[in-house]
Amino acid sequence: MRVPILMYHYISVPPQDADAYRYDLSLPPDVFQQHLDFLNEQGYTTIHLQDLIRYLQRGEPSLPENPIILTFDDGYRDNYENAFPALQAHGMVGTFFIITDFADRAATDPNYARYATWDLLRAMDEAGMEIGSHSRDHPDLRGKDDDFLVWQALGSRQTIEANLGKQPRVLAYPSGAYDEDVIRVFHAAGFWGAVTTQPGIEQDNQHLFELKRLRISHDTEVPQLAAILNYWKNDQK
Q: What is the CATH number of the domain that holds 22?
């Protein structure tokens, strides 16, 4: 079935000294607000990634007529400060993939101050946002042995459980990098599915750990977002 999954990172204006990577991954908050306005106008309804996976697996519970999933990688503090209140104001939900070791350090280590603390993540979770894993420390997971992968999978899962009181079920691969061993270990650790960085909106139950996403970058304003969604919904039939 066709369900767009949008991939955001920073929701903030990058600093003057930002490198090209930080700049490209940063969407200004006012543009993000415009995205949400546009999605509302187009009749989209946001759902959790878990909702999609359940539907693909069992055909229930039913999904809204025009579902969309908004995902946010890395767990930045500006997701709490800017994305979270905007989502709430629009009656929407998002899925936030966090790097658990970085969240552990966010409250005490200035080097990790750009990441959300557990207190902030807990507030988002309690308000109905979905919190997923983005690994313990954002490594390339490909080609690693099982011990390392188990440390990443169980470590991130147990840390989220300890801080939020619930088991995470969804994963975003760091930098979109994965292989069959990564899928096998995270599945065995209790995850139901994962998103990639592969473009597309066609999702199916044979590829729950290879769900496709549409990347949002600094210059994705509403006309560009509309064009992206139109391309994948209409031109790729």
A: 3.20.20.370
Question: Would residue 236 count as lying in a domain?
Answer: no
* Residue 237 within any structural domain of the chain: no
Tell me the pLDDT of the chain (237 aa) as tens digits.
999 999 999 999 999 999 999 999 999 999 999 999 999 999 999 999 999 999 999 998 899 999 999 999 999 999 999 999 999 999 999 999 999 999 999 999 999 999 999 999 999 999 999 999 999 999 999 999 999 999 999 999 999 999 999 999 999 999 999 999 999 999 999 999 999 999 999 999 999 999 999 999 999 999 999 999 999 988 655
Q: Judge contact between 89 and 39, C-beta under 8 A.
A: no
Q: Give pTM, 2 decimals.
A: 0.96
Q: Which two tokens stand for residue 76?
A: 């930045």
Q: In which domain, by residue range, is 92 found?
A: 5-231
Please state the domain count of the chain.
1
What residue type is 16 in one-letter code? Q
Region of 83 please: left (phi>0), alpha (psi -120 to 50) or beta. Answer: alpha
Would 174 be classed as within a structural domain? yes
Report if residue 142 sits inside a domain: yes
Q: Is the dihedral of CA 174, 180, 183, 184 positive or negative?
A: negative
Residue 175 structure tokens: 């930098």
